[in-house]
Design a protein that fits this description.
Elements: H1 2-19, E1 33-40, E2 46-53, E3 59-64, E4 69-74, E5 76-81, E6 87-92, H2 96-104, E7 116-121, E8 126-130, E9 133-137, E10 145-150, E11 179-185, E12 191-202, E13 208-214, E14 251-258, E15 263-271, E16 273-279, E17 285-291, E18 302-308, E19 313-317, E20 328-330, E21 337-338, E22 344-351, H3 379-384, H4 386-390, E23 394-399, E24 406-408, E25 416-419, E26 427-432, H5 440-443, E27 448-454, E28 460-467, E29 469-473, E30 479-484, E31 489-494, E32 500-502, E33 527-530, E34 536-540, E35 545-549, E36 557-558, H6 563-567, E37 569-573, E38 588-595, E39 601-607, E40 615-620, E41 629-630, E42 637-641, E43 649-653, E44 659-661, E45 675-683, E46 689-697, E47 706-711, H7 735-740, E48 744-748, H8 757-773, E49 778-788, H9 790-801, E50 807-811, H10 817-820, E51 824-825, E52 830-831, H11 833-837, H12 851-856, E53 870-873, H13 884-895, E54 900-903, H14 915-934, E55 938-939, H15 940-943, E56 959-960
Parallel strand pairs: 47-48, 47-49, 49-50, 50-53, 53-54
Antiparallel strand pairs: 1-2, 2-3, 3-4, 5-6, 6-7, 7-8, 9-10, 10-11, 11-12, 12-13, 13-14, 14-15, 16-17, 17-18, 18-19, 20-22, 21-22, 22-23, 23-24, 25-26, 26-27, 27-28, 29-30, 30-31, 31-32, 33-34, 34-35, 35-36, 37-38, 38-39, 39-40, 41-42, 42-43, 43-44, 45-46, 46-48, 51-52, 55-56
Helix pairs in contact: 8-9
Length: 965
């Protein structure tokens, strides 16, 4: 009897607690968590991961796989393990509120508490914290050392508040102040300090450390006893303000520490500036740049310094070198890179920069952009890329056996140059779009020509000309794999024989996107992996993986045995070690798996040479198996898994059948009315099948009627198992918030017909909504729609052609394709023509070829038919859609007396970037839909509005009894 009573009591309490769950509100966002940075030690015994709130202090956890215990550190960041896995090193930041206060009040950084460095010794189970650390580094591949810079607390000078984090001591920082460098052997605890260091680098193997010192600037001493009325008082010398006089750098010295021997060797010294420090793989060679030009020279000339410690060789490549192209110089803007085998050194050269005429009087000269129809790129693109173009450099290569000789292998005609076989190959891959660049205005991309360029002679061998597609070089550089987009085919180019072999012709499957629905050639599924010794390449179709032998010696093989296509599962390989560039055909490999029907996610195993079906290890209704990480020297793996109901958490496993959950994010979610999600399938009026996701409140009652919001953007059903954190969004629908507050949310997939993007949206969205309206729990009179960008356009089109929606929210829409066609995407500087002819807007023709098509698909030309209240977001710094599109829509509807509002978040982008604006729009979106779909009170901004005189004083959130219409 007592047992029955206890069970009854528990059931009553459960029901009571369930009924008490509250809806999400706008105050929850900042504390909602996600898994941030994570690493696993090389031996697989320790896992480091960060739990980050949306706004606030992060927490770092160090988890012991053996002991199943964790250490927690507040505000920790930039964690790294030493190569021997014995130590973890990380920085500890000041409190978030203090950092924010400094930025908000634009205080100087010296008002902020400095970072600390933490060193955790797993062997002794101790943690040491070192205050006032500017930044730290540990060797990448070997050695238990740490080097860190200590802040100079006596130096009160500081720049104003900056978004750049402390510790970002990059070579590009030419104004770095001399600090004390501490180099510590973590095993024996011995430390060595070096004063006045401005930059430093470890060799990857931890055997060498290079650093640059700078003599501190001498400041005139101040005699506190000196009296102004002294008879022998001499007036202070005036500061020389003549900027035309050369201002020399202070004395700088480059020194190298042999960490095993403890010796320090001076490499170079001058009154100048050294930068771009680079070791080879073994730490036996060093390269860097240096200039003896004056600090205030408008054009600084650099030299390349090279040292070989084993051979005791030094070489300086100066601009006067006879091998340098006439009018070219060493570039300061490219880090020298050694090939992996150390036999070649790649560095940057460039045409000598032209100094700006500082004597020119600006008011005497026009400031004008000159657009020329023969320019490769529009002026808007040129101006957008100007900063990078002024720093552009071109590759030259030195043979380190003969460091006095080098060859410029790059040229101004090339777009880019790729190293082959980690720089070991005796050639590089050159790529140019020359003579095809103008067409990018309407094509969106450019055809390219690909060359192999000999590192010693500079001779070019053309592989393929004017390719619309892509190429990839095999890991050892023996083959170049080519994808031709126009033909939809893959081929292989043999570097030795210069012969091209078709790979995919005659096979019964497509290797390009089978669902591609834009007026262009479809894109490929891509290369998955390579096999050892450049024997074969693994290429993906929609579901399966195929092996192609690069020399054509064997027939292609479906290494997943057609299992993917038979079961509609998409397979892919993993890249779990950045040092491993290819796969062993005999070894067991893991494959990620995605079930296109159920949206389940999981992992299989197979071997490339196998002729059997891949073996399933795990399939779950989660998202996250592509997030796999592996310990370098152990069979330990971490992954982050999530679903709509389960917050992202980190798991560790050795075999995937047993997985240990390490984190427990967002425990507060259990206090709130969350939701569920499910797939919905339907057939459109034209007989096409489609899928969508329906989100329901956790306390869903089929006997009630619910308002519904429809959110759309291309295809979203693959997101069934994605977690949707309540967050202030860039203007997308805050799904979790609305579901928690009693709404249904529906996200239908849309497929498009070229030339009819608007009608395609109507076909799929409206039919999906009608399917759901067959359920009595959907309130058909209270359905709203929301879309951002391309979705915003479709919102505008829908309300101009149907009256079935009670409210609409259109973010950054295009409403007039005729005026938007010639506009500029200001983020990239590109013209928008390609978007209509080749890309997302899907018209497939020019404006002058098919003006009726542009008008037909433009909501503005049917705007008089709109009866749905609508809010438009259109921001004056939108870098993708001309913001006057929102103005055209607003002014037309306003003239027609339709209920319409426009939000212009000043200075913000296409998708809102400023968090305060994201928070603002969440409130307005909630108030708008609550009024029209729930019958709630309307806010002031919807009824009376907020006049310009009240801007920044009154945000109009107050609810009133007034009606907006």
């Amino acid at each position: 009897m007592k047992l029955k009573c206890s069970v009854f009591f528990l059931l009553i309490m459960t029901c009571f607690m369930y009924g008490q769950k509250k809806p999400l509100d706008h105050s929850v966002y900042d504390n909602w968590q996600n898994i941030g940075a994570r690493k696993i030690s090389n031996d697989g015994k320790w896992v480091a991961y960060s739990v980050d709130p949306q706004e606030g202090n992060s927490n770092l956890f160090l988890y012991s796989v053996k002991n199943k215990t964790s250490k927690q550190f507040a505000r920790a960041t930039k964690v790294d393990f030493t190569n021997d896995s014995r130590f973890a090193v990380f920085q500890i930041r000041p409190l978030y509120k203090d950092i924010k206060a400094v930025k908000d009040k634009k205080l100087k950084k010296n008002k902020l508490t400095k970072d600390s460095l933490a060193i955790v010794d797993f062997l002794s189970d101790t943690t040491e914290k070192i205050p006032n650390v500017k930044g730290f580094k540990v060797p990448e591949k070997a050695g238990s050392y740490v080097a860190y810079l200590l802040e100079n607390l006596t130096d009160k000078s500081s720049d104003g508040a900056s978004d750049k984090e402390d510790g970002d001591d990059k070579d590009e920082d030419k104004n770095a102040k001399p600090l004390q460098l501490v180099v510590r052997n973590l095993v024996n605890g011995k430390s060595t300090t070096y004063d006045n260091v401005i930059r430093y680098e470890f060799s990857k193997n931890g055997k060498q450390l290079v650093f640059v010192t700078k003599k501190p600037e001498e400041k005139p001493a101040k005699d506190k006893k000196e009296k102004k009325d002294s008879l022998d008082h001499k007036p202070a010398e005036k500061k020389d303000t003549d900027k035309s006089k050369p201002k020399k750098y202070e004395l700088q010295t480059v020194q190298v520490v042999d960490l095993q021997k403890g010796t320090v060797t001076k490499i170079s010294e001058m009154e100048g500036d050294y930068s771009q420090l680079a070791f080879d793989e073994e730490g036996s060679q060093l390269a860097f740049l240096g200039t003896s030009s004056a600090q205030n020279d408008l054009v600084k000339l650099y030299q390349l310094y090279y040292s070989n410690f084993k051979l005791n060789k030094k070489e300086i490549i100066a601009n006067e070198n006879p091998q340098m192209k006439k009018g070219w110089v060493i570039s300061e803007n490219r880090l020298p890179i050694f090939s992996k085998n150390g036999k070649q050194l790649y560095f940057g050269v460039a045409p000598r920069p032209v100094a700006k005429d500082t004597a020119m009087i600006a008011n005497d000269h026009a400031v004008v952009d000159i657009w020329n129809y023969r320019d490769d790129y529009l002026q808007t693109v040129q101006l957008k890329d100007l900063k990078n173009d002024l720093k552009k450099s071109y590759a030259a290569v030195m043979q380190t056996e003969k460091p006095d000789t080098f060859r410029n292998i790059d040229g101004i005609d090339l777009d880019t140059l790729r190293l082959v076989n980690q720089g070991n190959a005796d050639f590089a891959l050159g790529i140019t779009s020359l003579n095809n660049r103008i067409a990018s205005q309407w094509e969106g991309s450019t055809k390219k020509t690909y060359f192999l360029i000999d590192n010693k002679t500079g001779e070019r061998t053309e592989i393929i000309k004017d390719l619309d597609g892509a190429v990839a070089v095999s890991p050892l550089g023996n083959f170049v794999v080519i994808f031709d987009r126009e033909k939809g085919k893959w081929s292989s180019y043999n570097v030795k024989t210069k012969q091209t072999l078709s790979l995919t012709s005659g096979l019964p499957v497509s290797f390009v996107d089978e669902e591609f629905d834009m007026p262009d050639y479809p894109t490929p599924y891509g290369i998955a992996s390579w096999t050892d010794n450049d024997e074969s390449v693994i290429i993906k179709d929609r579901y399966d993986l195929w092996e192609f032998f690069l020399n054509g010696s064997k027939k292609p093989r479906n290494i997943t045995n057609g299992f993917g296509r038979k079961n509609k599962i998409t397979f892919d390989t993993y890249d779990l070690d950045k040092d491993i560039k290819s796969l062993n055909r005999k070894s067991t490999i893991y494959l990620s798996a995605f079930d296109n029907t159920s949206k389940a996610n999981g992992i299989f195993k197979t071997s490339i040479q196998s002729n059997t079906d891949p073996v399933k290890i795990q399939m779950e209704n989660v998202w996250g198996y592509r997030s796999l990480q592996k310990a370098k020297n152990a069979e330990e793996y971490t992954l982050i898994k999530e679903s709509y109901t389960d917050s992202p958490n980190i798991f560790i496993t050795s075999d995937f059948t047993e997985q240990k959950k390490l984190s427990n994010t967002n425990q507060q979610q259990s206090l709130y009315n969350w939701g569920t999600d499910e797939l919905v399938h339907w057939t459109t009026p034209k007989g096409n099948t489609s899928t969508g996701i329906l989100y329901k409140p956790e306390n869903f009652d089929p006997n009630k009627k619910y308002p519904m919001i429809v959110y759309f953007y291309e295809k979203l059903s693959d997101n069934l198992n994605r977690y949707v954190a309540p967050a202030p969004t860039p203007s997308r629908l805050n799904i979790s918030y609305f579901v928690s507050n009693g709404y249904l949310v529906f996200t239908p997939d849309i497929s498009y017909v070229d030339g009819l993007p608007g009608e395609s949206a109507i076909e799929y969205i409206n039919s999906g909504v009608e399917k759901l309206k067959e359920n009595q729990w959907v309130d058909g009179a209270k359905i709203g729609i929301q879309g951002q960008s391309w979705g915003g356009y479709q919102v505008a089109y829908l309300i101009a052609h149907t009256n079935m929606y009670a409210a609409a929210w259109s973010g950054a829409p295009v409403v007039n394709m005729t005026s938007a066609y010639g506009g500029i995407r200001w983020t990239s500087g590109m013209n928008r023509q390609f978007q209509y002819e080749k890309s997302q807007s899907r018209l497939g023709k020019t404006l002058w070829e098919a003006p009726d098509l542009y008008i037909k698909n433009s909501p503005l030309f049917a705007i008089n038919q709109v009866k749905t209240p609508v809010v438009i977001m259109s921001n004056d710094k939108d870098g993708a859609v001309p913001w006057y599109q929102g103005i055209e829509m607003f002014t037309a509807l306003r003239r027609l007396g339709k209920p319409v509002w426009l939000l212009n978040y000043n200075g913000d982008d296409h998708n809102l970037m400023k968090r305060q604006n994201r928070k603002d729009i969440q409130i307005r979106e909630q108030q708008f839909f609550d009024y029209y779909l729930k019958g709630a009170k309307a806010p002031v901004w919807m009824t009376k509005g907020v006049p310009a005189t009240q801007k920044g004083k009154d945000w109009g959130f107050e609810l009133t009894d007034d009606k907006p219409n």
